[in-house]
Amino acid sequence: MADAAAPFRIKGETGDWEVVIGLEVHAQITATASKLFSGAATAFGAEPNTQVSLVDAAMPGMLPVPNRECLRQAVRTGMALDAKINRWSRFDRKNYFYADLPQGYQISQLYHPIVGEGEVEILLDDKDESSGKRIGIERIHVEQDAGKLMHDQHPTMSYVDLNRSGVALMEIVSRPDMRSPAEAGAYLRKLRAILRYVGSCDGNMEEGSMRADVNVSVRKPGEEFGTRTETKNVNSVRFVMAVVEHEAKRQVKLIEGGGTVPQETRLFDPDKGVTRSLRSKEDAHDYRYFPDPDLLPVELDDAFLEECRSSLPELPDAKRKRYEGVGLTPYNASVLTAEVETARWFDSLLDADAEPKQAANWVVAELFGALNRRGESIVDTPISPEEAAELLKLVADGTISGTIAKQVFEIMLETGEAPSKIVEERGLKQTSDTGAIDAEIDKILAANADKVEQYKAGKEALFGFFVGQTMKAMAGKANPQVVNERLRAKLS
Predict the structure, then answer these.
(1) Three-class secondary structure of residue 480 per DSSP
(2) Which of 325, 328, 430, 462 lies at a C-alpha separation of 20 to 30 Å from 448?
(3) Residue/partner pairs of 413-417 with CB below 8 Å, 24 or more apart
(4) Any idea what DSSP says for residue 366?
(5) What pLDDT sits at residue 433?
(6) Cross-referenced SUPFAM superfamilies, in alphabetical order (predicted)?
(7) How many angstroms separate the CA atoms of 279 and 229, rounded?
(8) Sequence-distant (≥ 6) Cβ neighbours of residue 319 within 8 angstroms
(9) Class of domain 434-491
């Protein structure tokens, strides 16, 4: 598939450079309210250290017990990414010391992850089907999160909050297939959409339930990969794109100045838009991985895999193709499938017998416009899909005009009343009464005799003037089709 535009390049003093990007996305499994190896709660925003079991705090003699639902959600996610599901997987201990890691190791999966290779298809331009690109997924492994250090609670000490300790994460590791900030942004948005459709992760980057480690290197186009840096815990699509841009330019400048890029872990400062060094990058052997002796291997049977597959919903790409199949433009189909709540709302609108193309145009233009003005999401809107379908039918059957429909829609937003009730009680029905329309047309033609002469002499653009005057005289309630027919008859 072709790229949407010319390849992204960093302009250096020695010529063009190419950026190579891979993302490691940590997605918290929010489909279950308990942790990976304990029954402790995982609610966001709880008071520090109120959601910590003896297992999470690594008390002596405590043994981990895998949460079946966490493993199920990882498998469902893998299936949604068209990835290889490994029937046999195993947990390993990743050993390192840190104050917020009570065990002194993290339980993860290095050698035998639960999900193998898959891919994500991205579109760089929602209006252009040929702008697609496939980004490879290397693996998904399940691991426990660490706790959190709090440095702003005391002038000389750091506090430890273990609420996140043991929370279940899926680490989704991409291949280094992305070549621009735009591709990295499109990949992260698409991955987030898939996770939210599946229901395995809520994708809330602000709350930390989805975050990305951004691996960036540069090279002259076509040459070997350069040394990469890893910028940790980036928590928005915009920031991921900013990290790629900054790191690529920083590395080019460093190399062209005669330096070398060290393999290191970096942090992003969103206020300044720059990255800074955190520590040298460890390799796998530095963590002294070995199989966790407290946990048996995970073996998946046919019945479990079949249940996982059958529970998957219609995914964004399939939904987009279905929408295009009933007449939606590629752009509208992409917009309506980008967020799972929008897609569900639109599906309910179609289930209420709304005409697909008319419904899509109305949602994208009118509904989204109103929600943006009001600072609301589609989840907050007081208008149900059934009421929206009713409004669209009133326009389609000629009960009200498109102009009146906008008024009715605004009243619906403010009052929550049904459109038919608003139209009836406020006398907004469109009239097709030719007698009433003829009477207004006669008045307008009599008052504009000079323009009638000009029209008959060939100035046909004046026809729109007569239509506008008639609609104005009838407060927008005249049926435009009837107005056009009666005007043509009287002016011929």
Answers:
(1) helix
(2) 430
(3) 413/370, 413/374, 413/381, 413/382, 413/383, 416/382, 416/383
(4) I
(5) 65
(6) GatB/YqeY motif (SSF89095), Glutamine synthetase/guanido kinase (SSF55931)
(7) 11
(8) 337, 343
(9) mainly alpha
In the block, tokens 């009118």 appear at 366
Nearest residue to 32 via CA among 23, 42, 24? 42
Distances (CA, A) of 107 to 49, 168, 476: 20, 10, 68
Q: What backbone torsions phi and psi does residue 10 show, to the nearest 5 degrees? A: -95, 125
**3-class DSSP assignment, residue 348:** helix
Query: pLDDT band at 428, cuts 50/70/90?
Result: confident
Structure confidence at residue 354 (pLDDT) = 96
Per-residue CA distances from 424 to 36, 159, 384, 478 (Å): 57, 64, 19, 16
Domain ranges of the chain: 10-307, 314-425, 434-491
* 431: three-class secondary structure by DSSP: strand
Query: Amino acid identity, residue 196?
Result: R
Residue 33 has pLDDT above 70, yes or no: yes
Residue type, 60: P
Tens-place pLDDT, residues 281-306: 777 678 999 999 999 999 999 999 99
- Closest by CA to 65, choosing from 31, 38, 35, 101, is 38
Task: Give the C-alpha separation, 218 to 196, whole Å.
Answer: 32
Model confidence at 316: pLDDT above 90: yes
Dihedral of CA 367/372/373/377: which sign?
positive
Please give the radius of gyration of the chain, using alpha carbons only, rounded to the nearest integer.
Answer: 30
CA distances from 85 to 26, 124, 143, 293 (A): 19, 28, 17, 23
Reduced to 3 states (helix: H, G, I; strand: E, B; else coil), residue 452 is helix
For every residue of 456-469, DSSP letters joined together read HTT-GGGHHHHHHH
Q: pLDDT tens digits for 185-198? A: 999 999 999 999 99
pLDDT of residue 203: 95
Output 490 or 104, whichever has higher pLDDT. Answer: 104
Cα gap 46→84, rounded to integer Å: 37
pLDDT value at residue 2: 41
d(CA 242, CA 270) in angstroms, rounded, equals: 9
Supply 263's token pair.
């393999």
Residue with tokens 């070398």: 260
Identify which of 237, 194, 189 has the alpha carbon closest to the alpha carbon of residue 78. Answer: 194
Cβ-contact 46, 204 below 8 angstroms: no
Q: What is the mean pLDDT of residues 12-26?
A: 97
Tokens of 438: 């003829």
